[in-house]
Amino acid sequence: MNSSFTKLYLLLYLGVLRSGMGSRLASAQPATLRQRRRGMRATFAKLMTCIGAAALVLTVTHTAAAQCGMPSKPIKRMNWSPMYRGAHPSLLRTGFGQDNDNDDGGAAIVGMWHVKFTAQSQNGETIPGGAVIDNSVVVWHPDGTEIMNSSRPAQDGNFCLGVWKRTGKRSYLLNHIPWQGNVFNPAAAPDLVGPPQGGDQIIENVTLSPDGKSYSGTFTLRAYDTFGNVYVWFAGTLSATRITPDTPFTDLL
């Protein structure tokens, strides 16, 4: 029994002695030993009833406080200071930091583009006049990643991913990986699914225009079979026009 409980016991005992019942016991005429014992037992029973009730209240209160997460020790003030001191809190960008590719004050390549790929050669053989082999919608992300929606049939796989880096003032290198999919044969029926392939790799070297509204450059494309062998490769040029919230769909046709 702790000191607080002992103090409670004494206070309740003194309260009983000061009550009317205690006064009657003090002023009563001498009684037989049996009557005195009976009175003492009754007084003690009432006292223990009061102590038990008080102990129950203390126990329930402590348990409730613990369940509600109330602290049992004094609460100290929180010592908090922002990691980055400034006028207002702000969100921090994460990733490769490629969104600073316009740190020279010029335009950035980040954004959405309409891109045309014109092959000038196939497997080392010149293509007279060139041939447009893809007409795509491309998004360059500020974290250094890129995604392309190709115009090739969807059943052959027309979404692919890439990563990019800045190589100079307004110049960029893109490593684009169309993963697996199927062989695309332009001479075949549009609903025909080609045989499986391992995937492609497209390497682009492009330069952004000073006004940031277009870019152009060169590309190589190597297509791999499921054993990792190159079965066809192209080299050519590409040109891109930035897509804005005001670009009509017909401009992409």
Percent range for helical residues?
Answer: 10-25%
General shape? elongated
CATH topology call of the largest domain: Lipocalin
- In CATH, what is the homologous superfamily of the largest domain? Quinohemoprotein amine dehydrogenase alpha subunit, domain 2
Count of helical regions: 3
Q: Summarize model confidence as the mean pLDDT.
A: 75
The biggest sheet amounts to: 8 strands, antiparallel, barrel
| N-C termini distance | 89 Å
Q: What's the SSE pattern?
A: HHHEEEEEEEE
The CATH architecture of the largest domain comes to Beta Barrel
- Domain tally: 2
Percent of residues in beta strands? 25-35%
Describe the structure.
It is built from three helices and eight strands. The protein is α+β, with helices and mostly antiparallel strands. It has two domains: 3-67, no CATH class; 98-252, Beta Barrel (Lipocalin), CATH 2.40.128.120. It has an eight-stranded antiparallel barrel. α1 (3-18) packs across α3 (33-67). The protein is elongated and about 135 Å long. The chain starts with a helix and ends in a 10-residue tail after the last strand.
From the structure above, extract its key features:
alpha+beta, eight-stranded antiparallel beta barrel, Lipocalin, elongated, 253 residues
